[in-house]
Predict the 3D structure of the following.
Amino acid sequence: MLEKIKQKALDEHIPIIMDETLEVIKEIFKKNNPKRILEIGTAVGYSAICFVQASSKDTIIDTIELDEQRAKEALENIKTMNMEKNINVIIGNAVDILPTLKEKYDIIFIDAAKGKYPFFLEQALRLVNPTGIILADNILYKGYVMSDYNKHKQRTAVRNLREYIKEATENEHLSTEILEVGDGLAVTTIK
Ligand code: SAH
Ligand code: MG
């Protein structure tokens, strides 16, 4: 079933999590044993489903998706996988929803609009448990982030991803590793 969901997403060019990134995150889960996970960017639920499989039975994932059609497909996929008890899909713009959240999370996975990454980090820092971990996918964005070529049409995204990296690595209260896995994964813990 999971293979089918994955293949359909790939066929439709939905940017689901890359295999090697998922492997790294699974290793992080083994050490962190998360009970509450927040995901920004559900798409069709593929990564959320993988996260449930990689964590304990009582783990809860709140996941936010802006696109109603994708959220609907995510709900169908979650039902097929019998994971309705583990995954809550919140339909709406994370920019509006994040400030309304109050409970803390053990893992926060940022995987949505790149231009909003600095804001997502700010909110994640408010919502993460002191022992929690903030993960940001696509942080190296096909290498654009580390190259000096900034005339690209994606320059707003690149500028915001660089701002995220700067804050995550230079803030003295944070400890951040930028992993060159998949499309780049930033792993941030609180010192
Ligand atoms: N995490 C998924 C892939 C997410 S793709 C997986 O690996 O399977 C990114 C998703 O973020 C897209 O579906 C897009 O619609 C959504 N998105 C983009 N901007 C958003 C925002 N501001 N709030 C909520 N979702 C957003
Ligand atoms: Mg991604």
About this structure: The chain has a mean pLDDT of 96. The radius of gyration is 16 Å. The pocket of S-adenosyl-L-homocysteine (ligand 1) is lined by residues 15-17, 41, 43, 46-47, 64-67, 70, 93-95, 111-113, 116 (CB under 6 Å). The CA atoms of residues 115 and 157 lie 5 Å apart.
